[in-house]
């Protein structure tokens, strides 16, 4: 009993005793013993027995004292209905009887016994032992408006339980004879105290057992339904969202509500425009075999359990960290979904301006003013100063604001659901947490008058819920917008909410005449108060359909934009948010410190080229020279007649000199800042890198996007070779991204290794590889091949990888997927869509080389894969053949391709449909290199991706093309095999694992319609998903051959050394060219031999003539030596030019012969 009551406080205890004292004690009546007259040998009876206290199992009885009790004993016989016992004790008070049954009536019969056996008269009384309260109450279900509890059945004869549930405001008491209870209609987010008392048949009650529980707030209960409750505290991170788990490639529909957020996230990360169309199957599927039930037609499929997609999206934003939020906003804007501008938290009643979340969105558009010049504007949307038009609702409104907005923003050909509205799946379910949400989207023109709804860019905001409940949000919109459109059914003429606002925005009143509540006079009154003119009142007339109404609204919006000077970027809105007490997501300390650090670096940048020379000197010419030396060390192309050993040691010496030169630089200010900043704690470091990346993009974007446009223009016509080359150089000069800083870090580290081990500079840099390995685990890419220098900083990369290995061991197995293809064919876009990663797409920068990135494989599927991480390698800057000719970048491209194909388990070969031949050249060299290099023992799997093919029958139609492709691949493999004196009948599939049937993927174009207003094509996303599933299945099947990170590193080293050794094949465009070159050489050698022979003969003859000069043998009539010399010279010239003609003739003849068979010559 003591235990079960331990939860009670002392005041309860007191109450209990008082309560029990107030019970009429049934023993009292019977307990009164009437003393009889004294007699000899008389044993006095026990007298007036009192019950001192009762407990569930104990009763304590008190006896009045007798004069000589020494010789007496007390005998107590007691019994209940089921149990009887007796006890003999010394005659002293009090007497404690233990071992009783709780909540039971006992009858006691007490006699006093003398030593001689004489007995007194008996006294008797009955006592109830205390009932036991339930030992423990469990609150087994907590909802926002109900609580369910359960308790155990205590011993004793329980008749019922009395259960109370009370909060500060009210008390509810219920009686039940079962041991569970649910209280309904409670308030969300309140603390309730819960008491259960056991009541016995005789009316006695136990003490209460008390506990307390909080009902869930609306937010808590929604998060619980979604299975996101623990992410309220510990926010979702990118590495969780992107890791590969059992849901990654299942096509199972969502079964319960807790599947939904993951379902949406998965689709959103793959930029699938159907991401918001979610419903669990269990809710919406009717039972099979249900008979026709006409009576219930209108009642069935109620949406009670279906969740509103807006709630799920709001919940996801509330449960995610800044990086996931940013990624979601980015992908949502690619799908042309609205994104949250003000995110409400219905628990705290606070809302947050989502500035950081939108920071990464970059939009490109062409306003009317630039449509002539074909110019465009490319800008980070949060800094673009645009007029904002807001749409809000006052009171009830029978018009579906969001649906009208969608129509307003769609062009006539293509309707798109920008905002979730009630006619969408789940859109009609009541919103539980997303009222108060302000969403935002942009209308951006493409510069075509006939297609554009608005010819200038506009931002559009939409407040969910009634402005009467969300005054802060409304005030914010009034101060930031150019115009606010207020939708209503009935307007209160006193409407203070509107008239009290201190607004900068024009107000438009939008009413629905078709609704009964619409009162013209009230609207007039409010309009007068607000000083509005007729043009600010929009009403949906009695016979107006949606299309006309939308036209009308469009006109009003157009006018509002034209008449207003009010333009504001989201960045500027943060000041107004602060004034109104709205939080701003960028205000966190980590984010601000990181921003300061990043700004400190980028503020210094004036001219990018100068900046790089100044602040990142180690990767400039020195690193390129080092690369040249390293390759020459292997290839020995320029050794000439020199002694090889000496030549090599000269090269070594030069290398040492260059490293010394690198070491002679002090660490630059920028690099010091950079290394300090990435040494900060995890969150801050991630913010820093993101800020830096965005700042650098901003710096180089202006220049680059212009240059890139010129480049594209010039490339259409390959006449402009010199210009293209120049632009290309400029592109490379102007590009500056975080990878340049990491590259510099690598060089600083590598250079320091040539110092003495004890050198302080070297020791200070020891930790850099570990830092970088940590970043890789956070999901940042590592630059494997520096495309500018065309080299791998081997020591740096392998030290980073070995640190990485230490960090993750023993979970260090990896499988590698690579993408290869000509530049700007959407490779990075493909990988980003497939894995949700963030490789730079070309609108940001222009880099070259290969980047590797880790994706975690979750515990739940690790066994299937036998692998812990997936490594993705993105290659950049492979040129198309015509362009590669210009600067001889074949060599670089071929090396890069050979390396990455060699490294990968699966290679995705990306082919843009327009120019499908370009990749073949590179592939041929890869195959050739594979044949040449003994080191290449493994057979990479190979998948071809054909982009921009949307025909359903593509796979069948292209059967012919696929056959042709394979045939060509085989031909060039044979050519290569012949040159390498390998077996005759080699085919492509002997080198790479490829099946023409399953190894080809046709993917639709990326955009559905005309950018900038085009969403991502659902077909693109789905096709990429199919490819992803296939790739993951393939990886599963090669899991057993997964390497660990160390093996990968070793393999990379030896592969790269082999590539460096290879001095012949990489300089050719493809194998057929190489083959032709060799054949030509053979012919040419013959001609050269004839020529040499003939000239030799002539020289011998000439020598004879010279030595015979002036002798009898001299048959010539020449007497002057100088005359002879002139003669011989002339003869030699004639001879040479005769041979020149002959050989040129031969060459021409040769090419005429072979033209048909070798077009590339
Ligand atoms: N129209 C169209 N544009 C695409 C497609 N795929 C990618 N892009 C765009 O092409 C540009 C280059 O893409 P990116 O992925 O950087 O190409 P990469 O150089 O091969 O990595 C980006 O601006 C993409 O948005 C596509 O299928 N159709
Ligand atoms: Mg790319």
List its traits.
single chain, disordered N terminus, binds magnesium ion, 33 strands, binds guanosine-5'-diphosphate, alpha/beta, 9-stranded mixed sheet, 38 helices
Number of strands: 33
Helical amount among residues, as a percent range? 40-55%
Shape: elongated
Oligomer: single chain
Bound molecules: guanosine-5'-diphosphate, magnesium ion
Note the beta-strand portion. Answer: 15-25%
End-to-end Cα distance:
101 Å
The biggest beta sheet reads: 9 strands, mixed
Q: What class do helices, strands and sheet pairing give?
A: alpha/beta
Major β-sheet strand ordering: 24-23-22-19-21-20-15-16-25
Spans of at least 5 consecutive residues whose pLDDT stays below 50 are 1-38, 299-303, 1156-1161
pLDDT averaged residue by residue:
84
SS element count, helices: 38
Question: What integer value in Å does the Rg equal?
Answer: 44 Å
């Amino acid at each position: 009993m003591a235990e079960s009551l331990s939860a009670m406080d002392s005041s309860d205890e007191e109450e209990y005793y008082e309560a029990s004292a107030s019970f009429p004690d049934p023993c009292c009546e019977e307990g009164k013993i009437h003393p009889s007259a004294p007699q000899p040998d008389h044993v006095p009876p026990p007298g007036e027995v009192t019950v001192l206290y009762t407990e569930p199992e104990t009763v304590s009885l008190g006896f009045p004292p007798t004069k000589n009790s020494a010789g007496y004993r007390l005998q107590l016989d007691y019994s209940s209905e089921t149990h009887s016992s007796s006890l003999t004790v010394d005659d002293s008070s009090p007497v404690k009887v233990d071992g009783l049954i709780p909540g039971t009536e006992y009858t006691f019969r007490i006699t006093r016994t003398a030593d001689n056996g004489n007995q007194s008269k008996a006294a008797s009384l009955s006592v109830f032992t205390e009932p036991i309260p339930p030992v423990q109450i469990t609150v087994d279900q907590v909802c926002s408006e109900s609580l369910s509890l359960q308790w155990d059945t205590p011993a004793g004869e329980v008749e019922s339980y009395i259960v109370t549930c009370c909060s500060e405001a009210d008390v509810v008491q219920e009686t039940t004879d079962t041991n569970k209870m649910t209280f309904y209609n409670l308030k969300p987010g309140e603390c309730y105290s819960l008491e259960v008392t056991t009541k016995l048949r005789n009316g006695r009650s136990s003490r209460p057992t008390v506990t307390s529980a909080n009902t869930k707030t609306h937010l808590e209960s929604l998060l619980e339904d979604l299975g996101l409750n623990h992410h309220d505290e510990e926010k979702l991170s990118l590495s969780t969202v992107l890791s590969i788990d059992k849901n990654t490639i299942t096509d199972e529909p969502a079964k319960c509500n807790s599947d939904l957020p993951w379902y949406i996230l998965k689709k959103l990360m793959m930029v699938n425009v159907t991401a918001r169309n979610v419903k669990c199957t269990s809710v919406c599927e009717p039972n099979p075999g249900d008979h026709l039930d006409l009576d219930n037609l209108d009642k069935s499929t109620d949406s009670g359990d279906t969740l509103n997609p807006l709630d799920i999206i709001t919940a996801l934003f509330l449960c995610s960290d800044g990086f996931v939020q940013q990624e979601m906003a980015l992908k949502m804007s690619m799908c042309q979904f609205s994104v949250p501008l003000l995110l409400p938290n219905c628990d705290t009643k606070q809302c947050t301006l989502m500035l950081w979340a939108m920071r990464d969105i970059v939009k490109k558009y062409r306003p009317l003013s630039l449509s002539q010049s074909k110019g465009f504007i490319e800008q980070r949307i949060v800094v673009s100063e645009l007029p904002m038009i807001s749409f809000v609702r006052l009171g009830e409104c029978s018009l579906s604001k969001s649906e009208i907005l969608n129509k307003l923003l769609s062009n006539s050909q293509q309707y798109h659901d920008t905002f979730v509205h009630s006619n969408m799946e789940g859109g009609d379910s009541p919103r539980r947490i997303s009222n108060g949400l302000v969403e935002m989207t942009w209308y951006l023109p493409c510069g075509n008058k006939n297609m554009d709804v608005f010819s200038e860019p506009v931002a559009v905001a939409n407040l969910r819920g009634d402005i009467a409940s969300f005054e802060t949000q409304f005030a914010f919109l009034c101060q930031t917008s150019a115009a606010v459109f207020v939708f209503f059914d009935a307007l209160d003429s006193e409407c203070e909410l509107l008239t009290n606002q201190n607004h900068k925005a024009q107000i438009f009143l939008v009413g629905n005449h078709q609704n009964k509540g619409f009162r013209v006079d009230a609207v007039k009154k409010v309009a007068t108060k607000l000083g509005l003119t007729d043009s600010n009142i929009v009403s949906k007339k009695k016979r107006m359909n949606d299309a006309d109404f939308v036209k009308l609204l469009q006109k009003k919006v157009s006018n509002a934009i034209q008449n207003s000077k009010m333009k504001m970027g989201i960045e500027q809105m943060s000041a107004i948010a602060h004034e109104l007490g709205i939080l701003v997501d960028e205000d966190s300390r980590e984010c601000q410190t990181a921003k300061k650090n990043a700004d400190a670096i980028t503020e210094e940048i004036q001219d990018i080229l100068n900046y790089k020379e100044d602040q990142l000197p180690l990767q400039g010419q020195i690193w390129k020279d080092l690369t040249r030396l390293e390759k020459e060390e292997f290839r020995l192309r320029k050794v000439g007649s020199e002694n090889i050993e000496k030549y090599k040691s000269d090269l070594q010496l030069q290398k040492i000199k260059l490293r010394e030169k690198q070491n002679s630089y002090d660490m630059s200010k920028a690099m010091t800042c950079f290394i300090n900043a990435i040494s900060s704690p995890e969150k801050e470091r991630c913010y820093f890198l993101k800020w830096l990346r965005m700042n650098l993009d901003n710096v180089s974007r202006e220049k680059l996007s212009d240059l890139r446009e010129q480049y594209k223009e010039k490339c259409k016509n390959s006449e402009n070779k010199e210009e293209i080359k120049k632009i290309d150089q400029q592109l490379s000069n102007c590009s500056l991204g975080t990878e340049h800083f990491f590259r510099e870090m690598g060089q600083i580290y590598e250079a320091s290794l040539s110092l003495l081990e004890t050198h302080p500079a070297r020791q200070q840099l020891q930790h850099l590889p570990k830092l970088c390995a940590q970043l890789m685990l956070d999901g940042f890419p590592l630059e494997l091949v520096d495309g500018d220098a065309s080299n791998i900083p081997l020591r740096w990369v392998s030290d980073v990888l070995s640190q990485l290995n230490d960090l993750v061991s023993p979970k260090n197995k990896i499988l590698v997927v690579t993408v290869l293809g000509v530049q700007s064919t959407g490779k990075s876009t493909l990988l980003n869509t497939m894995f949700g990663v963030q490789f730079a797409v070309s609108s940001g920068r222009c880099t070259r080389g290969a980047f590797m990135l880790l994706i975690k494989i979750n515990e739940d599927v690790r066994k299937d894969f036998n692998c812990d991480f997936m490594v993705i390698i993105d290659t950049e800057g492979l040129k198309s053949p015509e362009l590669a000719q210009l600067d001889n970048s074949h060599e670089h491209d071929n090396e890069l391709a050979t390396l990455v194909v060699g490294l990968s388990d699966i290679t995705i070969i990306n082919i843009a449909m327009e120019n499908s031949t370009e990749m073949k050249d590179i592939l041929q060299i890869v195959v050739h290199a594979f044949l040449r290099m003994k080191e290449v023992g493994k057979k990479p799997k190979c998948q071809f991706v054909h982009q921009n093919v949307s025909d359903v029958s593509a796979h069948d139609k292209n059967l012919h093309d696929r056959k042709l492709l394979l045939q060509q691949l085989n031909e060039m493999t044979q050519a290569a095999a012949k040159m390498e004196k390998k077996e005759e009948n080699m085919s492509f599939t002997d080198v790479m694992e490829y099946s023409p049937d399953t190894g080809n993927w046709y993917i639709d174009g990326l955009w559905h319609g005309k950018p900038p207003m085009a969403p991502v094509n659902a077909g693109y996303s789905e096709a990429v998903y199919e490819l992803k599933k296939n790739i993951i299945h393939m990886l599963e099947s090669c899991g057993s051959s997964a390497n660990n990170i160390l093996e990968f590193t070793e393999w990379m080293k030896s592969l790269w050394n082999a590539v460096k050794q290879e001095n012949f094949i990489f300089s050719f465009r493809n194998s057929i060219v190489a083959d032709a070159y060799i054949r030509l050489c053979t012919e040419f050698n013959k001609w050269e031999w004839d020529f040499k022979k003939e000239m030799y003969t002539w020289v011998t003859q000439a020598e004879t003539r010279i030595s015979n000069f002036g002798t009898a043998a001299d048959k010539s009539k020449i007497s002057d030596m100088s005359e002879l010399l002139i003669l011989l010279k002339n003869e030699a010239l004639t001879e040479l030019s005769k041979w020149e003609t002959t050989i040129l003739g031969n060459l021409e003849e040769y090419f005429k012969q072979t033209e048909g068979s070798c077009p590339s010559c």
